[in-house]
């Protein structure tokens, strides 16, 4: 079994949608990640208006040893309107068999590789046909073009509708101290029940906690800082340790463009919050004592 290990480097902000890394910058951060045991990279067809996969691919081109060391995660399903897809008239979802296969083939070209380690359906389209998705995924798996399959932003009932047709290994969801919904809406219970590994996107709250004007964020920031002092560590480590305590073994997908912050996150795997400290953070976020 080709399992992804924690944490995952999220690359959404590495290209046109953020830092605008050069090929050299990509090579540098990828090498630094790998040297420090961060070997999984999360992308999507649409990142950087359909450019980030190929920017990343340029940096790993012809590096066969590196390719076998890293895990590539990518997604399809969202269709954006942008210069690179001028024939799209409206932002929409596409989870047809034809689109999934075409998108994976394009991702393979972009990455200069012949397999994707983990392929995810980016959003639960109201038009998603489980049988069609299963046909596409089974075909791609049989051809060795994808190794594992998962979904993203799926609610429990959407997972259930699809899992009858195809094995689901991951559900990538928004999850952090400022976004606790999956703890409450059954998404994480569904992961436990079905042995689905959750991946948490925006696990640092997208950097929002650093903007301390918002009263709720100030309270969360203060609780997090207190624990950072207690555990002799930093804010980001505590934010990640909060997620790692959950029994589903959450995989944080960290979106920083800075290697220092990725290393902070890696260090969080050694922090074991007590149950009471976990509830201090949880309560700071909900704003009320548990019942
Ligand atoms: N499946 C989906 O629908 C979906 C949706 C969104 C994202 N994702 C994935 O999840 C990954 C992470 O998402 P994200 O980037 O929104 O989340 P994130 O990891 O929570 O946030 C990263 C952002 O926070 C900033 N940041 C982190 N620590 C900070 C600090 N102490 N002070 C100030 N700024 C700080 C980073 O800036 P620096 O770069 O300066 O560190 C970066 O802009 C993405 O790269 C993508 O792979 C998936």
Sketch the major β-sheet: 8 strands, parallel, barrel
Known CATH architecture of the domain at 8-168: Alpha-Beta Barrel
CATH class of the domain at 8-168: Alpha Beta
**What is the quaternary state of this protein?**
single chain
Q: Would you tell me which CATH topology of the domain at 8-168 applies?
A: TIM Barrel
Please mark out the parts with pLDDT under 50 across 5 or more consecutive residues, or reply none: none
Structural class, judged by helices and strands? alpha/beta
| Fraction of residues in helix | 40-55%
Question: What brief labels describe this structure?
Answer:
alpha/beta, TIM Barrel, 13 helices, binds NADP nicotinamide-adenine-dinucleotide phosphate
Describe the structure.
Helix content is 44%, strand content 15%. The protein contains 13 helices and 10 strands. Helix 3 crosses helix 5 (97-111). The radius of gyration is 19 Å and the shape is globular. It starts with 7 loop residues before the first strand and ends in a 5-residue tail after the last helix. The mean pLDDT is 95. The chain binds NADP nicotinamide-adenine-dinucleotide phosphate. The site of NADP nicotinamide-adenine-dinucleotide phosphate (NAP) has 26 residues, from helix 11 and strand 10.
């Amino acid at each position: 079994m080709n399992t992804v290990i924690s944490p995952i480097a999220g690359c959404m902000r590495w290209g046109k949608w953020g830092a605008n890394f050069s090929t050299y910058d990509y090579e540098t951060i990828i090498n630094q990640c790998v040297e420090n045991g961060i070997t999984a990279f999360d992308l999507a067809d649409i990142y950087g208006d359909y450019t980030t996969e190929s920017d990343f691919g340029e940096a790993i081109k012809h590096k066969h040893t590196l390719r076998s060391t890293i895990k590539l995660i990518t997604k399809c399903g969202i269709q954006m309107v942008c210069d690179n897809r001028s024939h799209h008239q409206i932002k929409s979802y596409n989870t047809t068999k034809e689109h999934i296969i075409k998108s994976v083939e394009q991702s393979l070209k972009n990455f200069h590789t012949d397999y994707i380690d983990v392929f995810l359906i980016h959003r639960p389209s109201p038009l998603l046909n489980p049988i069609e998705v299963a046909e596409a995924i089974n075909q791609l798996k049989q051809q060795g073009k994808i190794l594992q399959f998962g979904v993203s932003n799926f609610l429990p009932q959407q997972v259930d509708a699809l899992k009858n047709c195809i094995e689901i290994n991951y559900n990538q969801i928004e999850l952090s101290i400022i976004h606790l919904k999956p703890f409450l809406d059954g998404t994480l219970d569904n992961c436990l029940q079905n042995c689905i590994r959750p991946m948490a996107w925006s696990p640092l709250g997208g950097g929002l906690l650093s903007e301390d004007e918002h009263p709720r964020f100030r309270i969360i920031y203060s609780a997090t800082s207190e624990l950072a002092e207690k555990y002799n560590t930093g804010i980001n480590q505590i934010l990640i340790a909060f997620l790692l305590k959950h029994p589903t073994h959450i995989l944080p997908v960290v979106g920083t463009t800075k290697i220092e912050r990725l290393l902070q996150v890696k260090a969080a795997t050694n922090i074991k919050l007590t149950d009471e400290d976990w509830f201090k953070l949880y309560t700071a976020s909900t704003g009320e004592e548990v019942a």
